[in-house]
Amino acid sequence: MRKKVKISPESDVSSTIPQGNRICNFAHLAKEMFCKDCQKPLCFENVEKETIHGHASVLAIHCKECLLLNEVNTGKKFQCPNGYSVFGVNTRSVLAALHCDVVIITTWFSTTETVALGQLK
Ligand SMILES: [Zn+2]
To answer: Which residues belong to any copy of the Mutator-like transposase domain (predicted)?
Structure first.
């Protein structure tokens, strides 16, 4: 059973739309952008929190219909043999870095203002 977080309609819920650029899997995100409880579409304007995991994020989004706080992953996650789950985009980025000049990759992410692996929070 998912935990519902109720907020009053009068609450001052300021918009916390994540700023900057992200890499996201649109097909995966399109499937995730529905409330886990009432199935209504979720809206980026109701993002309460973003937790960055390398190139991917987990967004906490309130459903404006039932007020459930939903967790939305911006990409697919995979289960590792050791039990940890990882975002596929991060695994692919590490593989790409092994085959490319890390300075070029870092400069690209910095110039495009895209959240990168070095910005873990
Ligand atoms: Zn809902």
So the answer is: 20-102
Q: What is the pLDDT of residues 23-61, one digit of tens each?
A: 999 999 999 999 999 999 999 999 999 999 999 999 999
Separation of CA 13 and ligand 1 centre (Å): 17
Domain ranges of the chain: 26-119
User: How many A from CA of 18 to the centre of ligand 1?
Assistant: 21
Which residue from 58, 53, 71, 51 is spatially nearest to 5, judged by alpha carbons?
A: 71
pTM: 0.75
Distance 107 CA to ligand 1 centre (A): 40
The tokens for 83 are: 């039990």
